[in-house]
Design goal:
The chain is α+β, with helices and mostly antiparallel strands. It contains three helices and eleven strands; from the N terminus they run H-E-E-H-E-E-E-E-H-E-E-E-E-E.
């Protein structure tokens, strides 16, 4: 019985270490203000693995889910959720025409769709978010502190062809500067 428990612990530990070894992350999370809109931007680093790129080339539709959450800080209480956005970026490769169909949805609403033959453009589309509307500045309470959290869900990977392992980035976080026109960069 001890050997079975030890073997299970070794399998789980090696699976966890493999998941951390090439861990993807969100970098450059920033919030900017354009008129009355607060816009978020970020970039996924190390998110497209070789196996994921092979699946894309084979014509399997691949989707990345970006979760953006705006919170109002409250002392002594849980922070208040102000806005949540789900940005879904997907790609499908057509082997016959050798083109990628790229689509982006924000909260289920189609925002952008395009077709391109360039693999570099496809990778940039999947890994970069620019100017995603989060909230309207007049809707925020003056004098309060706010912050934005973001992460990307990359789907499931299979460890040892047996264990489904959820692959995502950790939460990136950036504070919103009160009443400023400049972008605020994330701190790590």
């Amino acid at each position: 019985m001890k050997r079975i428990l030890l073997a299970a612990a070794v399998v789980l530990a090696s699976a966890a270490s493999q998941a951390v070894a090439g861990s993807p992350s969100l970098n450059g999370l920033a919030v900017s203000r354009q008129g009355d809109d607060l816009l978020a931007s970020c970039q996924l680093v190390d998110g497209l693995s070789a196996s994921m790129l092979e699946e894309i080339e084979a014509g399997i539709e691949t989707t990345l889910d970006y979760r953006l959450q705006l919170y109002r800080r409250r002392s002594g209480l849980p922070d208040d959720s102000v806005a949540r956005r789900l940005v879904v970026c997907s790609v499908r490769h057509d082997a016959l025409t050798r083109q990628y169909t790229l689509t982006r949805r924000v909260d289920g609403e189609l925002v952008e769709t395009r077709v391109t033959p360039e693999a570099a453009e496809m990778r940039a589309f999947l890994t970069t978010l620019k100017n995603v509307p989060i909230a309207r500045a007049p809707d925020l309470i003056s004098g309060e502190e706010y912050y934005l959290r973001a992460r990307c869900d990359l789907g499931l990977v299979w460890r040892f062809y047996l264990i489904p392992w959820r692959l995502d980035t950790g939460w990136a976080r950036v504070d919103l500067a009160p009443a400023t026109e400049k972008a605020v960069e994330s701190r790590r």
